[in-house]
Amino acid sequence: MSEASPAASKTEAWWRRLTPFVLALGLLTWLLLSVDLEQVGKAIVVAPKFELLGFAFAFMITLLAADAWATSRVYARAVCPVKFQELFVLRGASYLPSIVSHHVGQGWLTYFLAKVYDARLWRVAGATLIVYITNFACLVGIGLAALPFNAGRLAWMAPALGVCVAGGCGYLVVLAVRPKWLAEHQLLGPLFGLGVAGHLATTLERLPHVLILFFGSWVPFLLFRIDVPFTDALALVPPMMFVAALPLTPQGVGTRDALATYLLASYAPAGSDGAARVVACTLSWAACITIVQLVISPLLMRRAYRLLKASEGAVSTRSP
Predict the structure, then answer these.
(1) Which of 14, 108, 201, 265 has the fewest beta carbons closer than 10 A?
(2) Domain map of the chain by residue range?
(3) pLDDT digits (tens, 9 = 90+) for 255-274
(4) Which helix (H) or strand (E) holds 85?
């Protein structure tokens, strides 16, 4: 069998990169065709734009600080001592590639951390897996807190959380047993090195970041007068946060909007077009977040490259 030509490989890679944007465009097109565009426009016009943009700036700075603190604790435990100030710069800089996808931003951060701290890339990637795991564990924790208020109303909630909890318990059992063929794997080694106690500690340290993300995902709906009660939000917002983080579309555009419309349209004021109002909210919020990222991330990106140059200079100085 002949090998694929370089040109064919490049074409395939080009289409693979384009797919998330095509999917996002397709979902948005379908969603916008299914709602009253005039009502979407009206909801955007009457929305408190300055309050929304101001909240977006405050939210992003607070989120960045909480994320950098929790993530620095993960890398300090699993890789090497990482300074909060430096991780604040690197994480903020990664928001620029995150505009394409959350996972592109995480990949950029993983690579830069490995270069700046002269650490093995696979070990840093393993520590990044811990970040994902603790994020998801916190989302499940929020869902469990919502269960007493919503179990009778949302039939899917208890089974979904049961599967997640069972999977989490199984994962902790594997960590405790430490199968040699897994524990010695270069990517999975940091997970086993952290152990059960370390995972629980890092999950607690991750909780403030995820709670800030939760409030940042809920409050914009309130600003658009989509009055989702707090106990309902505990159940309905985490699925949207999870879907937005999936590597399907850039920043969850399309996937998040469709799910939010399905879950939250009924909370809009009586007599209004709930679906149109939700779409107006999610698109406006995505635009505000992107504006904030385009303001702060390039500034931190320059500082990130200065950190990289300084670390490369330190390595060359230590070399014989």
Answers:
(1) 14
(2) 72-307
(3) 888 899 999 999 988 878 88
(4) helix 84-93
